[in-house]
């Protein structure tokens, strides 16, 4: 189903809870280049001011996960976790967290900010 982006922005701005289907469509349409950056920015501003219900956040997160490629870490013989980082000089947590988590027998991936940034490419990698 196709939705009207402007109507969804208005709905969120006015405090309406977006449906799972609307959220899935928004993420898919944006990553396909069908929604302008300015429109997504307006939606995110509405989300900032109105917040998201737990169900909206679950749907948003699931849609984002489905929007790109996922690493198969099933061959790693230990429990696996990741710690996202924006990188840069301000990231002091990763330096301490990585050896601490590894000492507990867990494999820890810390993707670089360059690869975790939002992008129009299918894998989320820089274009």
Main beta sheet strand tally, sense and closure: 2 strands, parallel
Strand arrangement within the widest β-sheet reads 1-2
Query: How many distinct domains?
Result: 2
Number of DSSP helical runs: 6
In helices, the fraction of residues equals 40-55%
Produce a short descriptive summary.
This protein is mainly alpha-helical and 127 residues long. Helix content is 49%, strand content 5%. The protein has a two-stranded parallel ribbon with strand order 1-2.
Explain how this protein is built.
The chain is mainly alpha-helical. It has 2 domains: 5-66, Transferase, Pyrimidine Nucleoside Phosphorylase, Chain A, domain 3 (Up-down Bundle), CATH 1.20.970.10; 70-127, no CATH class. The protein is 49% helix and 5% strand. The protein contains 6 helices and 2 strands, in the order ααααβαβα. The protein has a two-stranded parallel ribbon. Helix 5 (93-102) links the parallel strand 1 (80-82) and strand 2 (107-109). Helix 1 (5-13) runs parallel beside helix 3 and helix 2 packs parallel to helix 4 (54-66). The two termini are 28 Å apart.
């Amino acid at each position: 189903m196709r939705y009207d982006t402007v109507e969804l922005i208005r709905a969120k701005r006015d405090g309406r809870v977006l449906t799972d289907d609307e959220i899935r469509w928004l993420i898919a349409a944006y990553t396909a280049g069908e929604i302008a950056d300015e429109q997504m920015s307006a939606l995110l501003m509405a989300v900032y001011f109105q917040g998201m219900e737990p169900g909206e956040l679950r749907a948003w997160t699931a849609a984002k996960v489905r929007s790109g490629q996922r690493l198969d870490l099933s061959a790693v013989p230990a429990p696996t976790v990741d710690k996202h980082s924006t990188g840069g000089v301000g990231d002091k947590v990763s330096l301490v967290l990585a050896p601490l988590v590894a000492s507990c027998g867990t494999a820890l991936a810390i993707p670089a900010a360059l690869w975790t940034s939002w992008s129009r490419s299918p894998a989320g990698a820089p274009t």
